[in-house]
Write a structure and sequence with these properties.
Elements (H helix, E strand, L loop, with lengths): L4 H7 L7 H29 L7 H35 L8 H23 L1
Helix pairs in contact: 2-3, 3-4
Length: about 120
């Protein structure tokens, strides 16, 4: 297997964890990627929503959702890497920093979207 610079650094730390933990970490990474894709798809859906919402609000929400999805995707790898390092070092797993921001942010966005839809009806 050809190792890149970052993988060589990662594999030089600590010991190989139980493969089940590494695979679980990978599944969690993929779940974050699926979430990012869903949020981006929501942004695209808003962008093409037509007259369902006023253009400035629709465009603002579409940009916000798409940018949030991009941020989630970018931070998913960082989360995977931090967790994999902790597993290799036998340390406590780091808490997900993005989870509270994402859950509260999506809740606020849903309320704003609901209010906007009801206000335009």
């Amino acid at each position: 297997m050809t190792e890149t610079r970052w993988t060589a650094r990662l594999l030089s730390e600590g010991e190989d964890p139980d493969p089940r933990f590494t695979l679980a970490n990978e599944r969690t990474f993929l779940a974050w990627i699926r979430t990012a894709l869903a949020v981006i798809a929501g942004g695209i859906g808003l962008a093409v929503a037509g007259d369902a919402l006023a253009a400035p609000l629709r465009n603002g929400l579409a940009i916000t959702f798409s940018a949030t999805g991009a941020l989630i995707a970018a931070l998913a790898f960082r989360r995977w890497l931090r967790t994999e390092r902790a597993l290799r070092r036998g340390q406590t797993l780091p808490p997900p920093r993005l989870a509270p921001l994402m859950s509260y942010g999506l809740a606020v966005a849903a309320v704003v979207l609901l209010v906007a839809v009801l206000a335009t009806r």
